[in-house]
Design brief:
The structure holds two protein chains of two kinds.
Chain A (H helix, E strand, L loop, with lengths): L1 H10 L3 H11 L3 H23 L2 H18 L9 H20 L17 H19 L3 H11 L5 H8 L3 H18 L8
Chain B lengths: L5 H8 L5 H13 L1 H19 L9 H11 L15 H34 L4 H6 L8 H9 L2 H14 L1 H34 L8
The chains are: A mainly alpha, B mainly alpha.
């Protein structure tokens, strides 16, 4: 299962990463740049799933890294760096949504497609929008858990650590989110 | 495992079960159509969610990083560390000791005033009549508080209450208050210990 690999990556703060963190704590921007580069795509991806807008996701990602830089002196390596960073990302995404929600138009979000056939492309775009909208309609608490699990590949324990909630709460929120999505996305689901 | 295992399927689906649980679940799935359908539904949902494309990034990781680095302050801002315990934690024992000092002072002053009144106002029958007589406590009554049995303590307490008077009531109130303060302080210590264990110094992320 793909999540097994993801779990290994998310659980461990590698020695190399720890070195970068320590240097960045001392004010080394180059070391922090290395940390940004290694987490940039993952962070933008998660924030995009939380707010549904690509440019907003990039803005929130910027805010995430600046907040992380400011809070870095207080980071304790007991917690994996990735979990710590993603907690900031989730909070940044929520803050950004609070500020910008009236301006976010999910219908206007351009979606890429590799299928050249116009009809198939339209259907695919429609489905993608619908899926994205369905995720966005979830309550924020359940949405964060679902996004970290499905798009971040986080384990239950990592989600619990990242969001600072018990594992039981992770499971119940995930169950709620999935049940809700199965209702909303039933027309698009092909059960084999 | 004859009953349906719906609640386990999500954990199984997410790879969150132990090898032994996995074997049990897989054995159950072989013979349960309903659970197989539930699992298939979870897998279908995951497939739909992952078919939705990722955002098209407007810049490369390198360009994005360069942009961020330009915005960073010269040094990591010295974020104020979260104090080990908020100020309120320290105010609690201070408040307890303050309350004790206040009560002790009140007792001392009231007893001094009463003693002075008794000594100086013997002829004034109106005021003197308002002052209750001094309770004569026997040594054995007092000792029973320190090393007596429960029965003796109860007896001494009854004696004090029966005879009344400022010393009897005062002693009991004082003892009760001290016990309450001790309880409050112990509770505070227990809460502090629990808080320290559950909330070790950790980054306060905004």
């Amino acid at each position: 299962m793909a999540t097994e690999d993801n779990r290994v990556q998310t659980t461990i703060t590698t020695q190399a990463e720890l070195d970068f963190i320590n240097k960045a704590k001392a004010g080394d921007k180059t070391a922090f740049a290395a940390l940004i580069q290694s987490h940039y795509e993952g962070i933008v991806h998660i924030i995009y799933r939380l707010c549904g807008d690509g440019s907003l996701a990039e803005d929130a990602a910027q805010e995430t890294f600046i907040r992380a830089w400011q809070a870095l002196p207080t980071y304790q390596p007991r917690a994996p760096f990735k979990n710590w960073l993603y907690r900031i990302a989730v909070n940044s995404a929520r803050d950004m949504l609070r500020r910008e929600r009236p301006n976010v138009d999910i219908e206007a979000v351009p979606l890429s497609s590799s299928d050249p056939r116009p009809e198939a492309e339209i259907i695919e775009r429609e489905r993608d929008r619908f899926v994205q909208k369905a995720v966005l309609t979830l309550p924020p608490a359940s949405q964060s858990v679902l996004v970290l699990r499905e798009y971040g590949g986080f384990s239950y324990r990592e989600i619990a650590n990242t969001l600072n909630i018990p594992i039981g709460t992770v499971m119940s929120r995930l169950s709620y989110a999935r049940n809700r999505l199965r209702e909303l996305l039933a027309p698009y689901m092909e059960i084999k | 495992m004859n009953a349906h295992i719906t609640e386990w399927l999500a954990a199984y689906h997410d790879g969150e079960v132990t090898p032994a649980q996995r074997r049990q679940i897989e054995a159950h799935l072989l013979e349960c159509t309903q659970c197989r359908e539930e699992l298939a539904s979870l897998e279908a949902l995951r497939a739909v969610l992952h078919e939705s494309p990722s955002p098209t990034l407007s810049m490369t990781a390198k360009a994005f990083t360069a942009q961020i680095v330009q915005q960073l302050p010269d040094h990591a801002a010295p974020t104020s560390r979260q104090p080990t315990l908020p100020i309120g934690w320290w105010l609690a024992p201070l408040g307890i000791f303050g309350a004790q000092a206040l009560v002790q002072t009140t007792f001392f002053l009231s007893n001094t005033v009463l003693a002075a009144l008794r000594l100086g106002l013997q002829d004034n029958s109106t005021i003197a009549s308002l002052i209750p007589p001094v309770q004569q406590l026997s040594v054995s009554d007092l000792l029973s508080f320190s090393n007596g049995s429960l029965f003796q303590i109860g007896h001494a307490a009854r004696q004090l209450l029966r005879h009344g008077g400022p010393l009897g009531w005062g002693a009991l109130l004082n003892l009760a208050f001290l016990a309450m303060l001790g309880l409050l302080y112990t509770s505070w210590m227990a809460t502090w210990w629990s808080h320290s264990r559950n909330h070790p110094k950790q980054t306060q992320v905004t």
